[in-house]
Amino acid sequence: MPYKTHRPEKSSLEEELIESISRFITLRWIIVAGICTTSIFARFALKINLPLTPILFIAFCILMFNFACLYLQKYVKSHSNFTNIQISADWIALVSLVHYTGGIESPVIFYFIFHVIIAAFLLSKRACYFQAGFAVLLITGLSILEYLHITPHVHVKELFPNPVYDNGLYLLSIIFFSITSLFFSAYLATSVNCRLRRRENEIVTLKDNITDAYNRLEELDREKSEFTYKVTHELRSPLSAIQSLLKSIEEGYAGEISHKARDLVVRSEKRTSFLITLVNGLLDLIASKIGKTKEVDTQLIDINVAVKDTLQLMQEKAKSKDLEIIINTTPKPSYIKIVPDDLDIILTNLIDNSVKYTKQGGTISISNTITSNEIKVEISDTGIGIIKDDLEKIFKEFYRSKNAKQNDMRGTGLGLSIVENLINQYGANIKIRSEVGKGTTVTVTFPVDQEC
Description:
Elements: H1 12-44, H2 52-72, H3 79-100, H4 111-122, H5 125-147, H6 168-250, H7 259-290, E1 299-302, H8 303-313, H9 315-320, E2 324-328, E3 335-338, H10 340-357, E4 363-370, E5 374-381, H11 402-407, H12 415-425, E6 429-435, E7 439-447
């Protein structure tokens, strides 16, 4: 059977790039504020003779450029090219700031390294090296133009009393260290980023594989449920035929039978009836999983009568183990709006478990209480109890606790699954408290129908 696989609409790398571009644009607002604040503080507080007008003009140009990036961000198709353009424009703005704050003597030149690192995380390895080369070209070009006096050097005497921009050896050293530091920074940053990307790709691939496997398991579980549904559905017909034959014998259509034989037939018919009810419960459990609707015919059932009827069926079994059964009913009828067979399944499974797992001579206590909005049925026993680690698992299909298997190898592990499914259908809830060797208490709370 074909099954669907998970395919993301956008790759995680593309989504990360879009998010990083947004952060990059946000960072530029901070840079603009930093340029304005720092330059004004240096000019008026520190009395450094900076050319304030061109520096503020550069900040204004960056501001306008950032507004344009913010507007165009939602329309661009190639985010990689959009990022390249932004970083290239930033290099030009940065080299302009270097020029107006002392040229190759300016400490602003160190900010080129930070921008290379940013480029490494936003762009491909090749594009990052290209941007590093473009930055080196701008620094080298500015240095040579000032050295040859083609571009006038802005001398900040408060910072550099003796200018060195026209010193050939200093110029060569600045160019050398700029090239090595920028390209080495690009190498380190891109290497780290490539490793992170590889790990991310591995995680994304693993996630997709897990998702595909999960979808396949869901499909297999549905196929299993549908197969179980069909098999269980087929079991109902022969069981109904057996019940019908037993009824015929019980009612004398096959001739007179002895009192003892009739008693055995009656018991067999009751157990067959319960087996049919159990099959129907299993069908309901599976039907809810595969989305099949259930026809319901609810009735008002007195919980006191239902408990007594269920105990009547288990009288022989309880008697054979010499169990003491204590019943505390409500002083007046307590009605629940429910399908009779469903209530029969719930009570039979819960009481049968108490009888089965309570040792010889033990006690089972069943009490019913009623309030204005709920009816509570509590079944307590002095049985073997349930291991603490198994308490969270006992409602799973086909699961049986370890000590239950040791006590009685028979059992499918479906009883409590069916009970929980039915209880949930009626808006009720079930809670189990248990201690190994001391017994178990099961509490089922049904909502009271206000029409009752």
